[in-house]
Design a protein that fits this description.
The complex is a heterodimer of chains A (479) and B (1150). Chain A is mainly alpha-helical and 479 residues long. Chain A has 20 helices and six strands. Helix content of chain A is 49%, strand content 4%. Chain A starts with a helix and ends in a 13-residue tail after the last helix. The mean pLDDT of chain A is 91. Helix content of chain B is 10%, strand content 46%. Classes of the chains: A mainly alpha (479), B mainly beta (1150). The interface between A and B is large, with 101 and 97 residues.
């Protein structure tokens, strides 16, 4: 019995030892932090804003499919019967991955921004020294996400605070007008006042006051509020932005923060932060990829259409880099694309790439030439055609072309529309310009577009998860 | 079933000295046993009996005593034979007194331990060899050993029909017996082994090999925290023994379960050396928390058995029903495999040397198009594309606007006659060899089993292998009368050279040697000289920018140039101290630690075959440390006919996992594959640490009355760091009832029934594989480049869920065991029904939350199943034939999913309520449109569009439309469940034959009714000839006049009619199969040939693993499971092929 006593003592001791050391079953993660431990210091908020940009960078890897491939200037010559082909020929169904990932990416941006905006209010203001800037960036990025969302999907749920999943099931689709008025424009106006005009050092690349104004201009133009657009875009012209003298320098990715740069989705090579554009748009032809120094996967995407070739004058300095059917080697010999299937490509994103999909090429979200063309468009609509031509000519003349003079308002409008195609091809604008200007259906109908296709279907997965057409109905035509 | 050998010419041996030795040994043995008896403290609570017999055999009295009490009798045959007939008439007398009366103490001795009466003949020379009866004219000497060659001490050898003549083997398994005539037969028996009859046929030296008697109801089954006799089992437990494991010559322990145990579904999903099969016990009870069973190695619960040497294993007991697994609480829901390693035995040192070597080859090859077929396919594909585009194809192909690749035309015209099989370049006949040296032995105080093993297996894909060096030392020490200690040490080391063998091969980023080899057109050589002709010493041919072929890395370069290596150093050690407090109560303490260190490195050089991507390399290590402490009190008591066994315990376990990796693509050249070459420029890297801990209290009681009525109840409570703060502790109870009908008096008349039992159980278990921190709201580190530099940041990773907890399983089991004809035929049937709820689901939440999914305990899945296992000794003569057969079926059904019950779509699979997890989902096919009339009838894919269905395209079934009725249009509405990855049933069967020295065993296994979704067909059967296509597409539709086989659509370089639509039935293959998975032919070489060399026994064998497979499946392996994801089972993606092998082996006993 004595032994038994010893054993019982041992047992009790070991039970007590382990179960009373309360930590034994409470293990906090070592390699990640609990959410409650962050969103406190200025650095925390600076880092949390990086999280929003990160989602932006994810989304903009594929934005070209909406902005370019859907339109008439870009096509999928190589891939048949796959998603990019469906995007191109208007057969994309609502289960397409691009729709789901875009919806998710934009709401991820919005949620991360909401988190920053909510937590920063309760944070110790004396610690958060750059509070205005953090709020400005978060609001800009939230507005920007909503702007893309309404242009892609139409009415979408409005989320302006951190929500629970219970709440999310009851959230219906907000009206496009409401989203513009209550979120996009308001947030951008706030951002405009809170953001600095420029940054230095490691902060270069964050959104600026100029970016807020420029995007606001695009928003007003999209709303056909040409008066506000003109005011806002005119303000941008006073901020020191200037066109580069050489159009081709825009696509020299060694210096991307030049005088024409306003806001990019940033990508960088060698740190797993590269973009896919170079590989994605490079012809899958060894002598061409070798010529540009593009290693790895080449995907033959974003092929310029014959229609786009047709509007380029031969002397247009933008032509060779924008649309090509081959390369001109160092001896001046033109070597055409050999493939029967792939007939054209764009050189805008060609830059040496060491590792597949790790290109340093940024995606230009808005640049000064765009601002000038938008301003021209707004002025023209505001019956200031002569002044509009001035701005149009800045862009037109840089391309080595003769300036326009004495055009009617309608002629000017057409010239501006064409100039946008020439200047901004493969930069994610064409489809949205077509929709914005009401020319989508007439232009795209031969490619398979039906009238309701100015917006895309709500991703099937979202319809299914809500599973209530009263709350989240599908867009008309896609049911 | 047994191996025995004859020796025609008896050797002259020193008669008396050997006999004396044997007798001395027998005496010693008896003395030792006696010591044990004294030490064992006889049972004082003897029972009383009433007997009245006149001149009967002593056995009859034993039987009556057994009937009246629960005393059992164990005795060798000669006891019955030597005992004279007895008469007794007593009433209510102490059993010991009765025994004293009926047992002749001059001839026999008896002892009573725990109501078991063991009677032995006192080994007196006179009583063994009776000169008065026997003419000592023929002297037989022999050895009795087990299948592994170890001598069996104490085996009883007697002369058939002459009960008076017998002997017992000494510690070297030897016996000497004098027999009257040369044509007698010997009867050899030993507890736990099958009794043998061996005709002498004039031989005087004989070797007898006894095989374990698996049917023995006294067999002990290891259950959690204790053991129980097979006949006393209340739960459902399957066992696989050492002999079965050895026979298969498997390289991994878990492979030995294939086809051997009912309810245990083993899928050899990869043929890569060292790869683990997928094991599912009683269906799939979890969607996202993993369905792998828990392994308990010598009492140590672990998830990793990669480094175990199968030869070291004594037994595997698979706990299946909840009453058996509930003692493992929150880890029991997927079943528990209890593995015990071999331990030392008292007796002489026993040294075994085992080895085998042999070769492996690919088991089965899919059939792809040859060069001419590919070129033809290419020609028609371009032709049809031209036709679809409205081009004129009446002229020669050169005139078509879309050109046929020149190489295809060259092949068609006979200019290019190349026909290389790329698969043959990356596959090889691969050697395999294993060596093991083991020793066992011991005395009363210390017993030991030590072993060392070396295994070297090359892969059937070139440049990969698996080497294992493992050591084991198991010690059992009796430190004092009350204290004993078991110590197990198992250091091990494995080294695997890896090759990127399987996986998709459709872009230049993919690295898939098998995928690439399947996709290369036969008219392209893999190695070429400067002119582009085949040259085995040439450069890699570049699959880049070819008109006739998509771009991907040269598969031979993938297999040759990319170097991967994984080394795992493991150590498992535990010490188990047992202290006998009283005779009934024992205290056990287990302290154990396991350690697994894995180091992996990879290097891919810069090579044109890899599109000149910069050389890259990585280096990663991980270390897993796990310790356990278990304290249990065991109680074992028999009070009259009441047998009680109880255990209570407390355990604590903790695991710490550290890992890191470094990656760089800044290698200046291909010379140095380690990161030292990058001058410290590391382009990616991380280190992580992750921990879990667990505290448990457990209790179990087993009670039976008279070995007839059984009840078992257990309870365990687990607390885990993994569970949310609101759900920290889980409770897992179970109970089981059994009725051993054969113990009833009314069964007396049915003598052919040896054992018959009904079982019923219910229990609750859990699955705690829910991730270590999933209940906590954590952040995720992210980055974004600003001004060309990395800026670090973060974002919420998930929201906290304090309610997150284990998954719960409730299971009932009904079972019956029947054993008839002296246990020659045994049948076990089990029915189970389980329901798993609180299943962890990464539930899709509206993305407006900023998250796509949230982990919730929300799903519910049920499984019901039936399991049959049958063992039968069909022929028991000189020729023996035994069969074991098992057949299992289970039905899986999802009962609840997510808040709305939405199906989960995942690749080509769907998980929806009312259906099994991960059913194949897509379009059903319905032949092809043979002509315009059929096309006009529809249904049409994408009507009006340029990729709409054409004549010659596949016709899909119009299931429904947007209005809920078929609408003549094929679209997403027509997707439906198109097949099942689950077999209707699966089975295994082993037949063992033996005749004299020769033994043969044939094992087969298979499954029926499942399908495989061949995702690899996205490139290998897509109607475009840019990748080599499967040969079954050869008989395609060419025109109305030449419609082909009516199921194969026209090739088309710009596919129409949804042929590439993911996913459809034409990607499904019937995966039913029957595989002869093992044939082993063994021969024991007569020991006269090597006796001089001091070798006790020598056995050679030939084994063929997987020599034959019968299946309609097109790919390599019908058990494939590329994704490893529960939601997407049965998916093929150019997986590592399985191998067949032919081995020559040798077992040597010194």
């Amino acid at each position: 019995m004595k032994n038994l006593t010893y054993i019982l003592r041992y047992l009790v001791a070991s039970v007590v030892f382990i179960s009373c050391s309360k930590d034994f079953l409470e293990i906090d993660p070592v390699s990640t932090a609990n959410i409650e431990a962050v969103y406190k210091t200025d650095k925390d908020f600076q880092d949390a804003v990086i999280g929003i940009y990160n989602a932006l960078a994810d989304q903009y890897q594929n934005f070209w499919q909406f902005g370019d491939l859907r339109g008439d200037d870009s096509e999928s010559q190589m891939y048949k019967g796959v998603a990019t082909d469906f995007m191109n020929d208007f057969t994309l169904d609502n289960s397409a991955g691009i729709l789901q990932s875009s919806w998710a990416n934009y709401y991820t941006m919005i949620n991360r921004a909401n988190m920053v905006l909510e937590r920063i209010e309760s944070a110790d203001a004396s610690v958060v020294t750059n509070k205005n800037r953090h709020i400005g960036e978060a609001k800009f990025l939230r507005a920007f996400a909503y702007f893309d969302l309404v242009r892609i999907f139409g009415n979408v749920p409005i989320v302006t605070h951190v929500i629970t999943d219970e709440e999310s099931y009851t959230l219906g689709r907000g009206k496009v007008d409401e989203i513009y008025n209550e979120i996009i424009i308001k947030d951008l106006l706030d951002a405009e006042t809170l953001l600095p005009e420029s940054y230095s050092g490691v902060n270069i690349g964050r959104v600026t006051k100029g970016a807020a104004k420029a995007i606001l201009g695009r928003v007003y133009l999209t709303r056909h509020d040409f008066t506000s657009a003109e005011i806002k875009l005119t303000e941008v012209t006073t901020m020191g932005y200037a066109l580069l003298s050489d159009f081709n320098k825009l696509f020299d990715y060694s210096n991307e923060h030049h005088s024409e740069y306003i806001f990019d989705a940033e990508y960088e090579e060698g740190m797993n932060l590269g973009s896919i554009f170079t590989n994605n748009f490079c012809p899958n032809v060894p002598f061409i990829s070798n010529f540009f120094g593009v290693n790895g996967v080449r995907s033959d995407n974003q092929n310029p259409t014959d229609g786009l070739f047709a509007i380029f004058a031969d002397e247009d300095l933008r032509k060779d880099i924008t649309v090509a059917r081959g390369i001109t080697d160092e001896n001046g010999n033109f070597i055409p694309l050999p493939s029967q299937q792939v007939r054209s490509f764009t050189k805008k994103y060609m830059t040496p790439v060491a590792v597949t999909n790790d290109s340093k090429a940024n995606w230009k979200i808005i640049r000064y030439a765009d601002v000038l063309l938008m301003l021209a468009e707004a002025m023209n609509e505001n019956d200031k055609t002569d002044e509009a031509l001035v701005y149009l000519n800045y862009v037109h003349e840089r391309a080595g072309l003769e300036s326009y003079a004495k055009l009617t308002k309608d002629e000017t409008r057409e010239k501006i529309y064409t100039e946008r195609r020439l200047e901004l091809a493969f930069e994610g604008h064409r489809w949205f310009d077509l929709v914005r200007t009401g020319k989508a259906y007439e232009t795209m109908q031969p490619y398979g577009m039906r009238p309701y296709m100015t917006i895309f279907p709500i991703p099937l997965a979202q319809i299914q998860v809500i599973n209530n057409p009263e709350i989240l109905p599908q867009n008309p035509g896609y049911e | 079933m047994n191996y025995f050998s004859f020796c025609k010419k008896p050797r002259r041996i020193a008669h008396f000295s050997v006999l004396d030795k044997v007798l001395l040994a027998m005496k010693m043995t008896f003395l030792m046993m006696l010591t044990f008896v004294i030490a064992a403290h006889a049972d004082s609570m003897a029972q009383k009996v009433t007997l009245s017999f006149e001149n009967v055999k002593i056995e009859q009295i034993f039987t009556e005593i057994t009937k009246q009490t629960n005393y059992r009798f164990l005795y060798p045959d000669e006891v019955a034979k030597q005992a004279s007939k007895v008469s007794i008439n007593v009433k209510n007398i102490d059993i010991n007194e009765v025994l004293d009366k009926i047992i002749d103490h001059r001839v026999m001795a008896y002892k009573v331990i725990a109501q078991t009466v063991t009677i032995n003949v006192i080994p007196q020379q006179k009583s063994i060899i009776k000169p008065s009866v026997v003419r000592q004219d023929i002297r037989i000497t022999g050895t009795v050993v087990d299948a592994g060659g170890s001598p069996l001490q104490g085996a009883s050898v007697s002369l058939k029909g002459k009960p008076g003549i017998g002997a017992t083997t000494n510690d070297q398994g030897q016996f000497v017996l004098n027999v009257p005539t040369p044509n007698e037969a010997l009867v050899v028996s030993y507890v736990g082994y099958m009794r043998q009859e061996i005709p002498l046929n004039g031989n005087t030296t004989i070797k007898i090999i006894l095989l374990p008697d698996n049917s023995d109801l006294d067999e002990v089954v290891v259950v959690g925290y204790g053991t129980v006799g097979r006949k006393d089992l209340t739960g459902s437990v399957s066992s696989v023994g050492n002999a079965e494991i050895k026979e298969l010559a498997v390289t991994r322990l878990d492979q030995a379960l294939l086809g051997k145990a009912a309810g245990v579904h083993v899928k050899p999903v990869s043929g890569e050396p060292g790869a683990s099969p997928k094991i599912r016990i009683r269906g799939i009870g979890s969607i996202s928390a993993g369905s792998d069973p828990l392994y308990v190695v010598d009492g140590f619960p672990t998830s990793n058995i990669d480094n175990l040497n199968p030869n070291d294993i004594e037994s595997m007991d698979i706990l299946k029903d909840a009453s058996a697994t509930a003692i493992y609480g929150s880890r029991g829901a997927n079943g528990v495999v209890i593995i015990n390693t071999r331990r030392g035995k008292t007796g002489k040192v026993n040294i075994n040397f085992d080895t085998y070597f042999g070769f492996q080859r690919v088991e089965k090859k899919p059939v792809y198009m040859n060069a001419m077929e590919s070129a033809t396919y290419s020609y028609y594909g371009i032709k049809n594309q031209n036709i679809d585009e409205g081009n004129n194809v009446s002229g020669s192909p050169e005139t078509w606007p879309i050109k046929v690749p020149q190489v295809s035309l060259d092949v068609l015209s006979g200019k290019n006659t190349n026909d290389y099989e790329a698969l043959d370049e990356i596959l090889q006949t691969a050697p395999i060899q294993q060596y093991q040296l083991a020793a066992t032995g011991g005395n009363n105080t210390i017993k030991y089993a030590v072993s060392g093993e070396y295994l070297n297996q090359e892969g059937i894909v070139i440049n990969n292998d698996f080497k294992r060096y493992s050591f084991r030392a198991n010690f059992d020490a009796q430190l004092s009368k009350r204290l004993s200690v078991k110590l197990n040490l198992n250091p091990s080391f494995t080294n695997r050279d890896l090759v990127p063998a399987g996986g998709p091969n459709s872009t230049v980023e993919d690295r898939s040697a098998v995928g690439g080899a399947l996709h290369v057109h036969n008219f392209y050589p893999l190695l070429v000289d400067e002119q582009g002709n085949y040259d085995k010493n040439g450069e890699y041919f570049l699959f880049s920018g070819l008109e006739a072929q998509g771009n991907f890395p040269n598969p031979l370069a993938v297999a040759r140039e990319i170097k991967g290596n994984r080394k795992a150093t493991g150590f498992l050690g535990n010490i188990n101290a047992e202290y006998t407090i009283t005779d009934d109560v024992k205290f056990n303490m287990l302290l154990g630690g396991s350690f697994m260190n894995i180091k992996e490195s990879n290097f891919e050089p810069k090579n044109p075959a890899f599109f000149d991507v910069p050389a890259s390399g990585s280096d990663s290590t991980s270390m897993d440390l796990n310790w356990i402490m278990e304290n249990t009190l065991n109680y074992n008591k028999t009070i009259e006919r009441h047998n009680i066994q109880g255990v209570v315990g407390f355990t604590a376990q903790k695991d710490v996992f550290d890992s890191n990796f470094l990656f760089s693509n800044q290698f200046p050249n291909n010379l140095v594959p380690t990161l030292s070459a990058t001058s410290g420029i590391i382009t990616n890297g991380s280190s992580d640490k992750s921990e879990w801990s667990m505290l448990s209290y457990l209790a179990r009681i087993n009670y039976n009355f008279d070995s007839k009525y059984y009840i078992t109840a257990s309870i365990r409570t687990d607390g885990s760091s993994r569970f949310g703060s609101e759900k920290k502790w889980g409770l897992f109870p179970s109970t089981a009832l059994a009725w051993r009908i054969s113990g009833e008096n009314f069964m007396e008349s049915l003598r052919f029934i040896s054992d018959m039992k009904l079982r019923a159980s219910f229990g609750v278990t859990g699955n705690n594989n829910i991730g270590n921190y999933e209940h906590q709201g954590t952040i995720r580190y992210l980055k974004y480049p600003l001004n060309g530099q990395e800026a670090s940041g973060y974002a919420p990773q998930r929201l906290a869920n304090p309610l997150l907890t284990w998954e719960t399983q409730r299971q009932i089991n009904l079972g019956a065991d029947l054993s008839v004809f002296n246990s020659r035929l045994q049948l076990t049937v089990d029915y189970f029904k389980s329901k798993n709820d609180n299943l962890l689901l990464n539930t899709r939440v509206p993305a407006v939350t900023g998250f796509n999914t949230k982990l919730l305990n929300i799903g519910e899945v049920g499984n019901t199943g039936l399991e049959f296992s049958l063992t039968s000794l069909n022929v028991k003569q000189e020729f023996e034939w035994a069969t074991s057969l098992n057949l299992s079926t289970y039905k899986n059904k999802v009962l609840k999913l997510g808040p709305n019950g939405d199906p989960i779509y995942s690749g080509g699979s769907v998980t929806m309520i009312g259906q099994p997890i991960g059913m194949f989902y897509g379009w059903l096919t319905d032949g092809i449109f043979m002509n315009q009339a059929e096309l006009d009838q529809g249904p049409i894919y994408n009507p009006g569009a340029k990729d709409a269905s054409h004549v010659g395209d596949i016709r899909f079934k119009d299931i429904t439309g947007p209005e809920g009725v078929p609408d003549g249009v094929i679209d997403i509405n027509d997707k439906t469940i198109m097949g099942s990855p689950y077999p209707d049933f699966f089975y295994g069967m082993t037949n063992r034959f033996s005749y004299k020295n020769i033994s043969l065993s044939v094992s087969l296994q298979g499954s029926y009714g499942s399908e495989v979704l061949a995702i690899s067909r996205v490139s290998s059967a897509n109607t475009r000839a840019r990748y080599r296509q499967l040969a079954f597409l050869n008989d395609f539709w060419k025109s109305e006049e030449e419609p082909g086989d009516g199921n194969t659509p026209r090739p088309n370089n710009a596919p129409t009619g949804n042929y590439r639509g993911t996913y459809s039935q034409h990607w499904l293959d019937n995966a039913s199969y029957l595989r002869i998975n093992n044939i082993t032919l063994g021969y024991i070489i007569p020991n006269r040939l090597y006796k001089k060399l001091n070798i006790t026994s020598l056995r050679v064998y030939l084994t063929a693993n997987n020599p034959f497979i019968f299946t309609k499946y097109q790919g390599f392996n019908p058990d494939v499971d590329f994704s490893g994801n529960t939601l997407e089972p049965g998916v093929d993606q150019n997986d590592y092929p399985t191998a067949k092998s032919f081995l020559l082996g040798l077992n040597l006993v010194l």
